[in-house]
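User: I'm putting together notes for a lab meeting next week and I want to include a structural view of one of the chains we've been expressing. I don't have a solved structure, so I'd like a prediction I can at least talk through. The sequence is below, exactly as it appears in our construct file.
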Amino acid sequence: MLKATLVALPAHCVARDLGDVGHLPPPVPGTAPVDAARAFLANQVRLLPGSPFYVRHELHRKGVLASYDPDRLLYPYRAFAGLPQKEGIEKGYDGWDSEFIRGHMTGHYLSAASRMAAATGSLVFRDRVNYLVGELATCQRTLDLDGYLAAFSTAAFDQLEGKPGADAGGIGVPYYTIQKIMSGLLDAYAYVGNRQALDVATRMADYFGKRLAQLDAAQVDRIFRTDGSRNPQNEFGAMSDVLAELYKIDRNPRHLDTARLFNRAWFVGPLAEGEDRLGGLHANTHISQVVGLANSANIEGDPIELKASENFWRLVVHRHSFANGGNSFNEWFDKPRAEAGPSIDNQKILPPTTAETCNTHNMLKLTARLFERNPRGELADYYERALYNHVLASVAPDSGAVTYFTPFHGDFRTYLDGSFCCTGSGIENTARYNEGIYFHKENALWVNLYIPSELNWRETGMSLRQQGDITRGHPARFTVVKAGTRAVTLNLRIPAWVAKPATVRINGKPQRVDATSSGYIALRRQWKAGDVIDLALPAGLRLEHARDDASMVTVFHGPVLLAGELGKDNMPASDVGNKDAFLKIPSAPVPDIVSKSRNPADWLAPVPGDPSAFKFSGAGPANGIVVRPLFDLHHQRYSVYWRLNTGSQYGPAPGAVTLK
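Assistant: Thanks for the context. Below is the predicted structure for the 660-residue chain, given as structure tokens.
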């Protein structure tokens, strides 16, 4: 008999107000790296047809990502280095890439194209990556500034450091852009094998390490203090993360020392104590910081950094997130538990500025870091929620266009025309769809996401194919294409959303397993080529209640957040534009659900021929509205939050979920 290995959900942390703390101490002697599991590189996991992920991945491979011109991406770098432009290239990309985060798109493109080349074997993307790296190296040599490389002057850093007379030339957050460039270069090394990219990134790291070493502790604290305003002018991205990644490659302790300069005690200390001081902070600024903090913590095993990064994740997920896994109002964290009531965005209720895409892009990175540290179902449940219902939903399935905000209540999405931060993370997102599906350590494999894909696990010699779209009600089927040389444990995740016990068959034979939710079924054996594992995950309709107003509900079917179609009244002729282009257009009214029943199965009827769509019936004013996955509903108004009126004093229905 096969036994299930289940992971219990940990308790919430308790916040204590102990006041601010000083500078972070050095790592505790005797601590050790934390390495419980690792994600596979992009060249080991290939998406297969049969899911909405594959559709959007192909849209970007063939369209959006392919449409970028490397010489336009290089334009601001060549301009600053005084190098001639290629014939016919008269400017770079309009918008933020030519303004206060000049040159950031080149870093994002390197990260996306490197992964796309690795995952698909595309020679086009491989050649573009190699070309970009070679030309950036030429810019770095031409500048001859001890390894400095950017599309803007070092005066931006002079101004940040407070040097008299320094003029940043319109550059707002210089370290933010440096991180994107360095991350793109390290991805070119990791996924395309370009050693020149590693050399360029290393020289950049050494330049900034020397520069920061010349500052005293008070100067460093001042320039990296990001809680002074809601939109900090010194946002520094995930500098700690990229420097930690470089250290993992070259083991140069100076790079890890520089990384830790970006892990600030004023932020880390209270988090380690479980305090929630996030309200009013710029969300993505601080999520990015914790991505690096978690990476550093995993490398050294420092207990303060371990606790702080874990607590931050819990606070964001359980106190500051929406039903789709996203977070922030107008880019800011609100007070704890704010969700569907008056918000930090001028006291508006569910305004169209909810859930910035960059935030969730980085929350997925953080979640993966925590899973590498401690594999457990709670992390994978969140990763799935945010990936399906925010990251996937931020990409239009017809054009591949991406969004900045994801509205939730009577508004519509704006698809970006320009080079915003979420444009950059948006082109990376599709190339990263295969990253969170599988994790491994030694002879153990964790299957976290049920997305059609093929895994080539080189260390064991095993090849595994996954099929079936669970969003359409299909079971997940795994076929052993190549058996490998040794016994392997397959840890199949049982999501928190299963409506009934999951069932497992191996080569058609039912298996006796304990398949309760939010854990893993462990199947260990010497697998043979042709073995087939079928996993049925029964999905059902369920309500989730807003933390701050229990009468406001969202409806899920299995892992999928459902959105109601509200038409196109008062929408512009085109929904493409600046991120703020249509924020002043009034929302459409969202009707209440009126029913004595709190069971959504009593007032949502399946739409014939579409297993993922339902229609309101017996729900009063909401009758006739069709709901379908948020990731499927584009180019019209919609709502995912509804007021449920049961005609009695309200309390959550038995079995319903209130996110805590």
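A couple of points you could mention at the meeting. DSSP finds 16 helices and 25 strands in the chain. The longest strand covers residues 476-483.

User: Perfect, that's what I needed.
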